[in-house]
Design goal:
223 residues, 7 helices
């Protein structure tokens, strides 16, 4: 297959939707070729849209995966994700999921484009969980304790998520897991600028791309 140009014109939503209906043909990774794609009420691939990527749920007999297809370019995305994947694999934090960056992950109209691949995390977002449980003081109290443990764990590993918003924290069996690692900091990325600034409602109003290090989650944690 042909490699994408240096300045990538990424596929549109409709092009990704068409390609991902046939996992056996569009994916190079053997783990995905045997999968089926979750569909919506119209029988089309169910997509979850974000600022940088479209997320799809794929499943086979053994595993359920989250596949993120990018719709916004970032010139050093591959280098960043390789460092992120390497560091997270070595750390094994209970709050983070191993992520693989596949430079030639999905084939769209004869051209390969990058994806990220990680375990699908079932559960409710913090937003939904609190909406359903805010009147239960015991559950909310346990959640606060769990969040404090999460923050302490990341800081002890010199990791910062970069976008600790209510939709990037998943509650599974009353335990927390973080998703969306586009803006994550790991020590191997020291000296770089931040690739994104996260949800502005959870960030210090003066934060800019130069603020990128192991303490960038502190304002979000307080908020």
């Amino acid at each position: 297959t042909e490699n994408p140009p240096l300045t990538i014109n990424l596929p549109s939503l409709h092009e990704y939707q068409a390609a991902i209906q046939n996992p056996q043909n569009c994916f190079e990774d053997a783990r995905l070729k045997s999968c089926t794609t979750e569909t919506d009420q119209f029988g089309l691939p169910r997509v979850r849209s974000g600022r940088f990527a479209l997320t799809y749920k794929l499943q086979n007999e053994r595993q359920t995966w989250a596949v993120r297809c990018f719709h916004k370019s970032a010139p050093d995305r591959e280098a960043r994700y390789l460092e992120i994947s390497k560091y997270l694999s070595a750390q094994s934090s209970p709050y983070l999921v191993k992520v693989d960056y596949l430079p030639k992950g999905i084939l769209v109209k004869g051209i390969s484009y990058p994806i990220t691949l990680m375990e699908w995390v079932d559960g409710d977002t913090l937003e939904k969980f609190l909406f359903n449980n805010y009147i239960n003081s015991r559950v909310v109290g346990n959640l606060i304790t769990e969040f404090q443990k999460l923050v302490s764990d990341l800081e002890s590993r010199h990791i910062a998520h970069g976008d600790l918003s209510h939709r990037n924290i998943i509650i599974r069996n009353q335990k927390m897991l973080l998703v969306d690692y586009d803006g994550i900091f790991v020590p191997l990325l020291g000296g770089k600028l931040s690739s994104e600034l996260g949800n502005i409602n959870f960030q210090h109003p003066l934060r800019n791309e130069k603020d990128f290090g192991p303490t960038i989650d502190r304002f979000s944690s307080i908020a």
